[in-house]
Amino acid sequence: MNALWIAVALLVAGFAGWPVTALVFRLARTIDDRADAAKAAEEAKRSAEDPSADVTVDPPSAGGSQGVDGELTAAADAPPSGPSGSGPAAPTQRILRGGAIIGILERLGVCLAILTGQPVAIAYIVAIKGLGRFAELKETPVAAERFIIGTLTSMLWAAGTAAAIKVIFLA
Fold first, then answer.
1. Helix (H) or strand (E) holding 66
2. Contacts of 67 (CB under 8 A, 6+ apart)
3. Measured in whole angstroms, how far is the alpha carbon of residue 74 from the centre of its chain?
4. Nearest alpha-carbon partner for 150 in 21, 28, 32, 26
5. Cβ neighbours of residue 143 under 8 Å, at least 6 residues apart?
6. Average pLDDT across the chain, whole number
7. Residue 151 and residue 107: Cα distance in Å, rounded?
């Protein structure tokens, strides 16, 4: 009977955790969007009250010009500087590829570590995951934030599932 409960715990922790993680990502995005909207509203209110905000700036000329802050700006229809050529656009790179599979494996590992009484194994899981993603996390702050949110959500779900099964059914 214990093997059945362990299998149920692994299935619930590993495969039912992705909707929970997706929900937390959606909640985080909603919170960020609301904070951005509040910040934009505050900026609009501040600029409406600021008499120096009435200053207008002429648009740059067709060949590009020097902007207000001494920054060079290119015309809207001009191609960006760099290697010329009309080759295909570079494909966009997805952030944190393979995250769904890694998340399932992480939740299975955390659940199994708790069920077998080896919580130190969780440190190994986090270390392996962090080292594997280090270069990508260092380059992209958005990826680092997503990594932290996803890892904590996944681990909490797996630990909670394992703890509940262990306390209720395996005691």
1. strand 65-66
2. 60, 73
3. 32
4. 21
5. 95, 96, 133, 136, 137
6. 81
7. 9
Q: How far apart are CA 27 and CA 68, in angstroms?
A: 38
Q: Is the pTM of this model over 0.70?
A: no
Give the number of C-alpha atoms closer than 13 A to the C-alpha of residue 139, restricted to the C-beta side: 7
CB 168 within 8 A of CB 16: no
Q: 5, 18, 16: which is closest to 102 by C-alpha?
A: 18
- For the chain, the residue count is 171
Please tell me the distance from the alpha carbon of residue 170 to that of residue 6, in angstroms, as a whole number: 9
For the chain, state the CA radius of gyration: 25
Q: Are 153 and 107 in contact (CB under 8 A)?
A: no
Q: Which has the minimum average pLDDT: 3-7, 57-61, 134-138?
A: 57-61
